[in-house]
Specification:
Layout lengths: L3 H13 L6 E4 H5 L9 H10 L3 E7 L2 E6 L1 H50 L1
Antiparallel strand pairs: 1-3, 2-3
Helix pairs in contact: 1-3
């Protein structure tokens, strides 16, 4: 999964490249998409290109010519699905732990009552 800055920048590039072709974007425009305005846009775009989520044709002087590739356009849905699955897994682990500890506590209580009845 991408860090928040990379995900926000990928989302901004996806919105700009709705037609699928290359789009010219300025650094200031992309920086507004970053959380808290932090991060080096050029480095983040290079990272996204390294991960093969975008393609850069030109990057110089604060001007970037970029487009998203199919993996980059599909990333938000995939990340959302993975997040839902992780939450579901966490919930399942919690429920199994809860019910297991409840059953264990009930079993120990019954065992203690049985031992008390036998020893009296």
């Amino acid at each position: 999964m991408l860090d928040p800055s990379s995900a926000a920048l990928l989302r901004a590039v996806n919105e700009a490249c709705r037609g699928g072709g290359f789009v010219i974007l300025e650094e200031e425009e992309l920086a507004r998409a970053l959380p808290y305005g932090e991060g080096d846009v050029g480095k983040i775009l290079a990272y996204l290109e390294e991960k093969r989520l975008i393609e850069t044709r030109y990057a110089e002087g604060g001007i970037f010519c970029v487009r998203t590739v199919p993996a980059g356009r599909a990333y938000p849905e995939r990340a959302e699905r993975e997040s839902r699955e992780e939450k579901r897994s966490l919930r399942d682990h919690f429920l199994w732990s809860f019910w297991g500890s409840l059953a264990g506590g009930a079993l120990i209580t019954l065992l203690a009552l049985l031992l008390e009845a036998l020893l009296v």
